[in-house]
């Protein structure tokens, strides 16, 4: 049995008191140090760049299988920008596999449908229930606070797994080709046997693999999070308003909190508001059209430090066809792999899928013929080849899923936010139910079990 012991990161600022029962696989065999000091710096078995959703999900998935990893995060603490995201059926399957689904369910109310309305007339254009059956069981949709999700992932990882203030600036191969030398901004070097890039749209790892920078799609998003002192009184439904070239949504997380977003076509004037929260709020309120006053009040009560601005970027689907999702002992997941616009709310959900699939593929590669591998501990080439095959398996399994999601998000965003007369008519009169149905169709996906045979 291939097992990796606890990381010996004495310098890590994290201290965890929460302990989670580990799978039997994690306690059935001798252990092996996963991090040690060398003449060249620090040597680690598996290095994950980025402590976002994809990075922490991958690390926790590996941990559940008895494999330790080191997560390098550039910021000083967990990044919770974006505030919340809609978590669809596919994401809950992944969350259950890594063992944190039930804890998050207790903090977030279940949503039972989506109501789309015209921002011009204020009248509903389509409505869809989330209570329909999926091919893998019932649909489940909730709006999850990003902070709660990241903390739930962090708290289940062993102390020392995450190293904050560890910005990766470059990557190079060692002379033997079996390790990657990960250079950090503070001058230190981490020698990695496996390198996983989960470092977002500006990924250093994806750039090393040859990915092009995600393209700006000409739209931007303002997001906010409203915290009511008492119950907000909204039904547990996703409220979507579309028209006049904008798209805005209001989604309850629980009885006291509502997440909202406002996406729009960008212009040169945006420079005046993108770093000023007060102007962001004013801009959103002035462009909400005939959205009901009760809904507008959600934006009005939002604190300024709970409002953010970000340009929207997307990967190019045709480039994913021939992109090197993996190369040797390196691969990418999440936004570093398939950056997409938020129009189908699948960015974070698909990142959770990636984490389960990659953990499974890596565990299969590392544990295969482990007794033979341990007997030949000095023979790194054989292990490198098994890791490479595991990475290729992950890339093959996830490539088309990524392409489909990126394409769907781009198409839905174009239709829902178009101001063209014909497209607007079709959207409001014909395509409303079809577009809403696409959300459930893309969520009707099972990434499989975390366990390996």
Describe this structure in words.
This protein has helices at 53-64, 89-97, 101-105, 146-155, 204-209, 277-286, 293-301, 317-322, 347-367, 370-375, 380-417, 421-443; strands at residues 35-38, 41-49, 70-72, 84-87, 113-118, 124-129, 133-134, 137-138, 142-145, 162-163, 168-173, 180-184, 189-197, 215-227, 238-243, 246-254, 257-265, 307-314, 326-327, 330-332. The strands form 4 sheets. Strands 1, 2, 3, 10, 11, 12, 13, 19 and 20 form a 9-stranded mixed sheet that branches. A 7-stranded mixed sheet has the order 6-5-15-16-17-14-18, sandwiched between helices. The chain has 12 helices and 20 strands. The model is unreliable at 1-33 (pLDDT under 50). α1 runs parallel beside α4, α2 packs parallel to α9 and α9 packs antiparallel against α11. It has 453 residues and is of the alpha+beta class. Helix content is 34%, strand content 25%.
List strands and helices in order, with pairings:
Layout: E1 35-38, E2 41-49, H1 53-64, E3 70-72, E4 84-87, H2 89-97, H3 101-105, E5 113-118, E6 124-129, E7 133-134, E8 137-138, E9 142-145, H4 146-155, E10 162-163, E11 168-173, E12 180-184, E13 189-197, H5 204-209, E14 215-227, E15 238-243, E16 246-254, E17 257-265, H6 277-286, H7 293-301, E18 307-314, H8 317-322, E19 326-327, E20 330-332, H9 347-367, H10 370-375, H11 380-417, H12 421-443
Parallel strand pairs: 2-3, 2-13, 3-10, 5-15, 13-20
Antiparallel strand pairs: 1-2, 4-9, 5-6, 7-8, 11-12, 12-13, 14-17, 14-18, 15-16, 16-17, 19-20
Helix pairs in contact: 1-4, 1-9, 2-9, 9-11, 11-12
């Amino acid at each position: 049995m291939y097992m990796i012991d606890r990381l010996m990161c004495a310098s890590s600022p994290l201290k965890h008191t929460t302990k989670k029962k580990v799978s039997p696989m994690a306690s059935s065999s001798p252990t092996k140090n996963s991090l040690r000091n060398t003449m060249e710096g620090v040597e680690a078995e598996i290095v994950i760049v980025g402590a976002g959703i994809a990075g922490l999900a991958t690390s926790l998935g590996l941990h559940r299988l008895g494999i330790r990893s080191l997560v390098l995060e550039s910021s000083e603490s967990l990044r919770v920008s974006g505030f919340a995201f809609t978590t669809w059926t596919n994401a809950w399957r992944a969350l259950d596999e890594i063992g944190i689904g039930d804890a998050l369910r207790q903090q977030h109310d279940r949503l039972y449908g989506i109501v789309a309305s015209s921002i011009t007339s204020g009248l509903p254009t389509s409505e869809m229930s989330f209570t329909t059956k999926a091919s893998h069981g019932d649909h489940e949709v909730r709006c999850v606070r990003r902070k709660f999700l990241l903390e739930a992932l962090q708290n289940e990882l062993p102390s020392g797994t995450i190293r904050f203030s560890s910005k990766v600036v470059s990557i190079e191969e060692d002379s033997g080709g079996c390790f990657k030398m990960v250079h950090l901004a503070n001058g230190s070097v981490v020698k990695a046997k496996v390198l996983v890039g989960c470092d977002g749209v500006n990924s250093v790892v994806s750039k090393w693999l040859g990915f092009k920078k995600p393209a700006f799609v000409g739209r931007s998003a303002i997001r906010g999070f409203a915290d009511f002192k008492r119950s907000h009184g909204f039904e547990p439904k996703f409220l979507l308003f579309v028209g006049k070239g904008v798209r805005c949504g209001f989604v309850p997380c629980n009885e006291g909190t509502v997440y909202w977003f406002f996406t729009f076509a960008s212009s040169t004037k945006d420079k005046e508001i993108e770093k000023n929260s007060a102007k962001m709020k004013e801009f959103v309120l002035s462009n909400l059209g005939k959205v009901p006053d009760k809904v507008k009040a959600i934006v009005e009560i939002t604190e300024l430090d709970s409002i953010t601005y970000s340009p929207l970027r997307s990967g190019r689907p045709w480039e994913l066809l021939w992109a090197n999702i993996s190369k040797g002992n390196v691969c990418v997941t999440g936004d570093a792999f398939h950056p997409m616009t938020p129009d189908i709310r699948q960015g974070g959900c698909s990142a959770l899928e990636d984490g389960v699939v990659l953990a499974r593929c890596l565990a299969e590669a590392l544990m295969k013929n482990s007794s033979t591998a341990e007997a030949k501990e000095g023979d790194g080439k054989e292990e490198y080849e098994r890791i490479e095959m595991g990475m290729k398996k992950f890339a093959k399994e996830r490539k088309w899923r990524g392409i489909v999601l990126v394409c769907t998000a781009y198409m839905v965003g174009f239709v829902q936010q178009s101001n063209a007369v014909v497209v607007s008519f079709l959207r409001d009169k014909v395509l409303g139910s079809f577009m809403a149905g696409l959300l459930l169709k893309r969520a009707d996906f099972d990434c499989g079990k975390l366990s390996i045979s």
